[in-house]
Write a structure and sequence with these properties.
The structure is a single chain. The chain is of the alpha/beta class. Helix 3 packs antiparallel against helix 5, helix 8 packs parallel to helix 9 and helix 10 runs parallel beside helix 11. The chain is elongated and about 70 Å long. The protein has an eight-stranded mixed β-sheet with strand order 3-2-4-1-5-6-7-8, sandwiched between helices. The protein binds guanosine-5'-diphosphate. It is an enzyme of class 3 (hydrolase). Part of the signal recognition particle protein translocation system, which is composed of SRP and FtsY. It catalyses: GTP + H2O = GDP + phosphate + H(+).
């Protein structure tokens, strides 16, 4: 499960603090050194770690904390609060267009989980009594269109496709029109990925963006790729003005660095977390719950 190493290490640091009636400056410094190492080992971006530790120290060192009844607990609370803030503070909800349909554009590298996440999002929206339309805009990856159609059949959501010979920009344009004509209140556009960020892909995504004017541009990133996921997010964000991130594969044994760094590095909120291959494995991302989970 994700974050295992980090949780174990933080628990060790905190159990030492918790046991103490009085906490010295030296104890706090020692704890902060250990938290710092634990975060670095969890593959959290080093700048993010530096700022995080500085913030925690600023709050933890002081008379109020030292003279409180349970200083160890106060420090643990501070770490918990800062971890929550690091991941965005509070839940960041999906935007909704004033006039339907709300357009969600899914972007990301190949294999990150865009197509499956599109299906999962559609299912989540259906549960909220919405009528999403899936648009098959990934014409390059063999079988991506079929994969989306199969997902659509499973959840009984319509899938708009023009095959793989029409440009994705045209598919997106017609898909949006189709949604308007058929009363779909959400349009989820699955776009093509690449193995690496490249200019051609970005240009295509920018064109789709200008044609459909999305309410959300959601970057799907594989949390198992750690710092790479954060670099990818930075790249996409420079080119496309992302509105949110979906972290996938949090069910795997990711060390957690991506989840803990991506908001701080890009400024983009994490909106959803995917914790499995099944269609109901997508959850709204709650920073405070994730922080509590990490702290164990
Ligand atoms: P795309 O190329 O970005 O469209 O990626 P896909 O949607 O085809 O996903 C790539 C692979 O990752 C598939 O085998 C998915 O089942 C798998 N996958 C996606 N999300 C998750 C997740 O949250 N957990 C796990 N374990 N697998 C996932």
């Amino acid at each position: 499960m994700a974050f295992e190493g980090l949780t174990t290490r933080l628990q060790n640091v905190f159990s030492k603090l918790r046991g103490k009636g009085k906490v010295s400056d030296e104890d706090v410094a020692e704890a902060m050194r250990e938290v710092r190492l634990a975060l670095l080992e969890a593959d959290v971006n080093f700048k993010v770690v530096k700022e995080f530790i500085a913030k925690v120290k600023e709050k933890a060192v002081g008379k109020e904390v030292m003279e409180s009844f349970t200083p160890g607990m106060v420090i643990i609370d501070i770490v918990n609060k800062e971890l929550t803030d690091l991941m965005g503070g509070s839940q960041s909800k999906l935007a909704k267009a004033n006039k339907p349909p709300t357009v969600l554009m899914m972007v990301g590298l190949q294999g990150a989980g865009k197509t499956t996440t599109s299906g999962k999002l559609a299912k989540m929206l259906q549960k909220q009594n919405s009528r999403p339309l899936l648009v098959a805009g990934d014409i390059y990856r063999p079988a991506a269109i079929k994969q989306l159609q199969v997902l659509g059949e499973q959840i009984k959501a319509p899938v708009f496709t023009l095959g793989d010979q029409t440009s994705p920009v045209e598919i997106a344009r017609q898909g949006l029109q189709h949604a308007k004509d058929n009363g779909n209140d959400y349009v989820i556009i699955d776009t093509a990925g690449r193995l690496h960020v490249d200019e051609e892909l970005m240009e295509e995504l920018r064109q789709i963006h200008s044609v459909v004017n999305p309410d959300e541009v959601l970057l799907v990133v594989d949390s198992m790729t750690g710092q790479d996921a954060v670099n990818v997010a930075e790249h996409f964000n420079q080119q496309l003005d992302l509105t949110g991130v979906v972290l996938t594969k949090l069910d795997g044994d990711t060390r957690g660095g991506a989840a803990l760094s991506v908001k701080a590095v890009t400024g983009c909120p994490i909106k959803f977390a995917s914790l499995g291959e099944k269609l109901d494995a997508l959850e709204p991302f709650h920073p405070e719950r994730m922080a509590s989970r990490i702290l164990g």
